[in-house]
Amino acid sequence: MDKLIELGELLDWYGMLLTEKQRELMSQYANENCSLSEIAEREGISRQGVRDTLKRAEDQLRAYEKALKLVEKFDRQEKLMAAMRMLVKESHVTDREKELLQQGLDTVESVWEE
């Protein structure tokens, strides 16, 4: 996976655990694809300061994922849900049974949306 996409995903999941400054700089880097120099100019700090802040933030995001594995679990669930939806669609059960199975899948999927 592309590093910026991965960092953006980690930021989505764990960003609120970073400091406001780390979150802002990481967002510019991962989501807006800004260079270190661009971020430094925007923020009025040195390029090295940006690099150090991003490195600390990245290390923290990766540590959170290593400990909690929320992104990994979510990705696994998404794959399982897709496979289960395909099974429901292709199964030879009544329309009512398919509807009930679909409702169950929707309920499981909604857990992550809360």
Feature tags:
79% helix; 6 helices; Arc Repressor Mutant, subunit A; elongated; mainly alpha; 2 domains
For the residues shown, what is the average pLDDT? Answer: 92
Task: Tell me the span between the first and last alpha carbons.
Answer: 27 Å
Structural class: mainly alpha
Number of domains: 2
Assign the CATH superfamily of the largest domain: Winged helix-like DNA-binding domain superfamily/Winged helix DNA-binding domain
**Uncertain residue ranges:** none
The largest pleated sheet is described as:
none
Quick one: overall form?
A: elongated
Strand content: under 5%
Per CATH, which architecture of the largest domain?
Answer: Orthogonal Bundle
Rounded radius of gyration (Å):
20 Å
Query: Given the structure, what is the number of helices?
Result: 6
Q: Would you report the number of β strands? A: 0
In the CATH hierarchy, the third-tier topology of the largest domain is known as: Arc Repressor Mutant, subunit A
Q: What pattern of helices and strands is seen along the backbone?
A: HHHHHH
Helix content: over 70%
Level-1 CATH class name of the largest domain:
Mainly Alpha
Characterise the protein shown here.
With 114 residues, the chain is mostly helical. The chain folds into two domains: 3-68, Arc Repressor Mutant, subunit A (Orthogonal Bundle); 72-113. It has six helices and no strands. The protein has helices at residues 3-14, 20-30, 36-43, 47-68, 70-90, 95-110. The longest helix is centred in the middle third of the chain and has 22 residues, at 47-68. The chain is elongated, with a radius of gyration of 20 Å. The model has no long low-confidence stretch (mean pLDDT 92).
